[in-house]
Records
---
Amino acid sequence: MADPADKPPRGGDNRPALALHVPEPKSRPGDPVDFSDLDIGEAGSQPRPDEGAHPSEMTGLAYDLIRVLGDDDRAHGPWDPKLDPETLRTMLRHMAMTRAFDERMFRGQRQGKTSFYMKCTGEEATSIATSMALASDDMVFPSYRQQGILIARGYPLIEMINQIYSNKGDKLKGRQLPIMYSSREHSFFSISGNLATQTPQAVGWAMASAIKGDSRIAATWVGEGSTAEGDFHSACTFATVYNAPVILNVINNQWAISSFSGFAGAERTTFAARALGYGLAGLRVDGNDPLACYASQLWAANRARANKGPTLIEYFTYRAEGHSTSDDPSGYRSAQEREDWPLGDPVKRLRDHLIAIGEWDEDRQAAMDKECAEQVKEVTKEAEKNGILGHGLHQPFRTMFEDVFEELPWHLKEQAEQATRERIKKFGEKGPNR
Ligand SMILES: Cc1ncc(C[n+]2csc(CCOP(=O)(O)OP(=O)(O)O)c2C)c(N)n1
Ligand SMILES: [Mg+2]
């Protein structure tokens, strides 16, 4: 038996006091910003392993930053996806359209046409370039900031706006928060407000695809803050155990509403390095470099399709705007951050690349931006005919009781009747929303 005298002394004796570490962002409103500690390697200098490589052979890429577009606006190195100019222009157009759409919807919220909207400014490449590297029937499980996927997949803008306005054209019948789209036809899984739930769902879908001997893979997008949820870690475990054909995209925009990424573990390691402990392939990518976004997603898609295993990819980017229309970032972070952010703007970087290779010019860009803004404006007007917030032109009130049970149980029937009676009393026989 151990001698009790060997035990460390009890508290209050001469043991050192413990100290809890509470992460604190490096700058707050009004402070100068310093991004100099970021290790941003030269574009083209990161190795591109074989798509079937064992995760242990590529640990360096979980800490590095895969980049293709250099300061000279040209593509460099082994990750250059060598896309033709037409594809690059399509990518640029999707990105410009997403930005125009965001601007219009944000304004619509300020005008009281919807209750809520979320922009993806500065993060367009992480949804558009990545989804362009997937097949159109690969199943995507996005978060709320990947509207670019729907735009890239050709989902009609009017359907998006109907959903945002929760009007009578809304296919989801006003049952989802604005921007929480869903489209089976576009292999776009319903967005959930419960963060990170999409990650195990994507892995489960990918496992089912493998069980059935299908050829489609799954991809999910999750914010860096949301990786602190248990769901994300279960997803990683299932993905590695069953070698699921799935891509786990972590969008590290450095903020989770007002919490900086340190609260999700960013002070200690990279999000891509999470992959290592699970035995997943891990890549860390410049999320503002559309070519690097495309190339890394294609690498992971080819790997998954060849049954070589899942990949976790961290896209390092910056949330240029507020979290949502309900947020004001000037209360918790320095405005200088956006100015000084060293990886630039993804739309501008792709535009400058196309100009540098002689496939684009400022005039064409201006014309395209104008066209996108006008198209969004027109479609918005069209959608407004179906109603906006508060105009009563939403789905009939009673539909909230439908589509859950094949046959409405008696107690819900009673509730529906009572609700209708009360609304008639309030609004009259010809009143709205019955
Ligand atoms: C399970 C859960 N916890 C908390 C929230 C509230 N919430 C909504 S968005 C958000 C921030 C998420 O940040 P991040 O994952 O980094 O994504 P980003 O908004 O930056 O794209 C939080 C905490 C939620 N919706 N669900
Ligand atoms: Mg975030």
---
Amino acid sequence: MNLDVNETVQNLDFYQRPEDEQTDFLSLTWCNECNEMDLGMTDPKEYCSDSRHWIEGKCKVCSAVVITEIQEDEE
Ligand SMILES: [Zn+2]
């Protein structure tokens, strides 16, 4: 995941998402520290740039930063 330094990163409001999506994003995670999936995250923050869209939170187990990239089918 390389972020172009020239890209503008926008802050989005994670809590504007439908509740079922929030639940999914908060539970379907991958933690690099624990090396395990679906441990869950807390404190979610949503960002997007020109080329990427992602949610950043903290691993529920070890509090490391957890990033979930959002794949979108947008034209
Ligand atoms: Zn962890």
